[in-house]
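The passage that follows is intended for readers who have already worked through the single-chain material. We present the inputs for a multi-component assembly, then the predicted structure in tokenized form, and finally a short commentary. You are encouraged to pause after the input and sketch how you expect the pieces to fit together before reading on.
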Amino acid sequence: MADQAQKRTPAPSVAKVIASLETEFGERLSKAAAVRERFGKDESFHASIPPDAVVTPRSTEEVSRIVRLCAEHQVPVIPYGTGTALEGHVAALHGGISINMQEMNEVIEVHDEDLDVVVQPGVTRKQLNQYLHDRGLFFPIDPGADASIGGMTACRASGTNAVRYGTMRENVLALTVVLADGRVIQTSRRARKSAAGYDLTRLFVGSEGTLGVITEITLRLYGIPEAISSAVCTFPDLDSAVATVITTIQHGVPVARIELLDEAQIDAINRYSKTDLAVAPTLFLEFHGSSRGVEEQSGIVQEIAADSGGSNFQWTTNTEERNRLWQARHDAAYACKALHPDGEIWATDVCVPISQLAECIRETQRDIRESNLVAPIAGHAGDGNFHLALPVDKNDAEKHERAQQLHERMVMRALAMGGTCTGEHGIGYGKLDFLVAEHGEAVSVMRAIKQALDPDNIMNPGKILRV
Amino acid sequence: MADQAQKRTPAPSVAKVIASLETEFGERLSKAAAVRERFGKDESFHASIPPDAVVTPRSTEEVSRIVRLCAEHQVPVIPYGTGTALEGHVAALHGGISINMQEMNEVIEVHDEDLDVVVQPGVTRKQLNQYLHDRGLFFPIDPGADASIGGMTACRASGTNAVRYGTMRENVLALTVVLADGRVIQTSRRARKSAAGYDLTRLFVGSEGTLGVITEITLRLYGIPEAISSAVCTFPDLDSAVATVITTIQHGVPVARIELLDEAQIDAINRYSKTDLAVAPTLFLEFHGSSRGVEEQSGIVQEIAADSGGSNFQWTTNTEERNRLWQARHDAAYACKALHPDGEIWATDVCVPISQLAECIRETQRDIRESNLVAPIAGHAGDGNFHLALPVDKNDAEKHERAQQLHERMVMRALAMGGTCTGEHGIGYGKLDFLVAEHGEAVSVMRAIKQALDPDNIMNPGKILRV
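Having made your guess, compare it with the prediction:
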């Protein structure tokens, strides 16, 4: 691929933009093939599609000038955070300039009393939490990877804590955005709520760089809980595990994390981590609150789990013990990769109403067996969201075709159950057709908004929508 | 005003639309002056501006046909819920057809396991909670009035419970919307979260009927808490009351309601309700949870309040006692009205970061004194949101001018503090200029969206934005 990137000759308009950027940005503009290759690829199995150049701004004003220049020449703009997306979000499908946000990585202001923080988009979530720790504050959204806050905002990330704290949708208070013509707007104020006009904040959250470049983000924060406890419990079957999740949430237990791993996932972890966990549907839980509160919560869930046939309920507030209990969950992604040492993993997700979760997973497991594939399932069960780790074997076209068909059936199954084609990974260019299958006529409204805000289609073109 | 309504002659295009609607809707189309007068007015002091006719559909399909007809003739469409808005939202500024949603008042489906419900827009929040009660479920958003769910969605309502449960922004899962050309879309699925495309749900929540007519709403529900407790506490000054709120929230106490009434509000209540409450800043609190949980929560808050100088902390879980404790809060609106038996009340609101709340209220109180007006303040303190009840005396132009200037200074003060010109009442046509003051260049983005989705400006024209 690096060869291919090297050989590609940029269009004349791109060459002009690159020349101007070189003058202004000097060494912060790169045309090196290896750099372009890296910025054209995320963590998915999608091949790199390199941009024509990569520029690294340090301020909103610089981003504005870059976008204005690209707009003049109708050259595509692709924002890049950490490259941890999973649906080809950063691929330069139509060439253009990748804007590397990694040097815009300052925590600008923390407001302890208001429980909010203003950050630049290149700040990663781990960096942010390290920064906040001594103030007794934290930002809960945890999509697994140490993604940038800008990327998490653009992709409406969620992850394990969403069942309690919500997703980026609920936790972004305001944004600074550079529009497709280079103008800069603030989408909202720091106030906790507002009824003033259209909700532009939520419009840009999840827009995947297709409506503008996010250059500043105000986030909600939370006090680090006084006590955190973890629990693990195994179940005779999927239905009893999911019934435990449903009853727990109906009961109003403010569980912070409630993760479901299926037999295949546990088996993969046993192989990878040399553990001997019972190969059965397993829930991993975490509780946040006061010492008495977490004890009460876990007591209630233990009863609920027992009523549903759960067994071997292990519970602890000790940090080391907690890490040991959750190690299996943390190893899940690596364990999936280890199943296919010579291939790649296609990590995909859907999200369904929780009443449909057991059936959706069960049907998908049946389909996996019938497709003669190995594909573990792990899910943020409290949200009805689950992941499938499909093998990608590019040297076995027939196997890849089987995986693709399985994937399509899973998404269509989720849609038929009132679910969505992606709970947290986004559309990128990997799920364009599924967006249409899911939203139908509403896609025309999304397209009208895209065309109103980006009439020349220069903002991350080819993602979310075909224009 | 009724006379004025009677005399107005509709434009020829409106006459055609009305004739067609009469054919289809028969008695469900009204041109009667008294009816039009009623549908042109909300609960604010803004005068009625009657529509040319009022039509009462019973289905999404009927709404679609009405809007399609209006679109053909470029006749304005104004959706009407219960008329409890506060910024002239239902006024027919440019004439047109008011769509009365009150006969679309069915609860369509409750999903107990998923904790969600699908309703028609005319269902009111009290009707919904009555319906849900026997299932052990409730919908928490409480803007005071028994508003329709459609109106609450269109105006992004919030109210007393928002500090714990969020606003309509967080609690609407999906919408069915009739667009400006009559097409019908679903904005989302029932899944708890999604990363699939632009967040159309949040775009229509708070759009005040200017982008489409909402004809079906899917809402999040919650289990009725096992225990509810209430508390009241008085403070020597505003700062100590607000400090108690800030520390409570920083501490992670999941308080369900935390309301602040100022001295003027308490004084008004004493006069109205013949009570002898201490005329001092007062917090009204409510806790939801398990029996042990609410006890723990209120114990923590009592300590925090005492540390800040709070006194006379009264606490109870008994329903009758709870109602007695909160009676003063419930009487607040009536008490404000009783201050001006011959006039009206101008109920306005702003919302600021909570760290600015005490100063914003204190400065506003000073301004009220210096303006020689009586205007109580009551606020959803946990969100930094407060209301001012200004007197409206239409026979005293000088006094009204003083009230208007005070209002403008309060809004600009809130904006200067990083706040918003309205936390929950919305823009309507009463706060158009403040929207511009708040959002600046971002208003052009709102306008671009409005023009893309409603090119002929027929959807509740003149509200939120000038086009």
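Commentary: Chain B touches chain A through 94 residues (CB under 8 Å). The mean pLDDT of chain B is 95. How closely did your sketch match?
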